[in-house]
Amino acid sequence: xxxxxxxxxxxxxxxxxxxxxxxxxxxxxxxxxxxxxxxxxxxxxxxxxxxxxxxxxxxxxxxxxxxxxxxxxxxxxxxxxxxxxxxxxxxxxxxxxxxxxxxxxxxxxxxxxxxxxxxxxxxxxxxxxxxxxxxxxxxxxxxxxxxxxxxxxxxxxxxxxxxxxxxxxxxxxxxxxxxxxxxxxxxxxxxxxxxxxxxxxxxxxxxxxxxxxxxxxxxxxxxxxxxxxxxxxxxxxxxxxxxxxxxxxxxxxxxxxxxxxxxxxxxxxxxxxxxxxxxxxxx
Length: 283
Fold this sequence. Notes:
By secondary structure, the protein is α+β, with helices and mostly antiparallel strands. The protein has nine helices and ten strands. A hairpin with a 2-residue loop joins strand 3 (54-61) and strand 4 (64-70).
């Protein structure tokens, strides 16, 4: 958590695993207990009956039923050190003080343990600093986990972070699939593998232009910008189809290749600008 607090990417970090509950840990000296004729079961039962308030039975008085609860007087168990003064009987009937058989260690523990996928877990929640995106936050958290956590620890996402990571991977798959499908459809339409390749060469240029404008405007790569890039691919591919188709028609009419390309580009310039403007205004 210290590294998360120090990171400039996060603010107001918190974890649900808090060590705030006092705990007394008892360690039994088994060798000494055996020498004195006391088993570990006797010690455990004595502590259980004296501290747990367990119901031992019932008794009836004046027609009413009452529970019998085994518990040491509260004044005699207010402090962890009072456990040392408890006596129990060995197999010879002699009373032995518990202080001779145990070591007591005071500590703190979490008041509640949480589980995720059947493993003990701790959930870290944090807000993002101004100007930071959820993608940057996840990358920073992964970096801190790699540097701090040992190999036997595992991390997992939940809530909005999990949905963002899953949607990002799905969009990347959709992005690649869209390019492949567009190429195959164009290859079937033009009955050629060369013309679709010419059309698809405009896609990297369009993506580069989109990234430059995003950088200039201070925008980040998020789910909305990824959807916009996918739409841009479709728009650029449509414009390329029209230009290539018009150029092929002019070549079939007898025009030289370069002249046909220039005439097709000039003829389709205004419709392309109008389509792009209407799409931008519609968004």
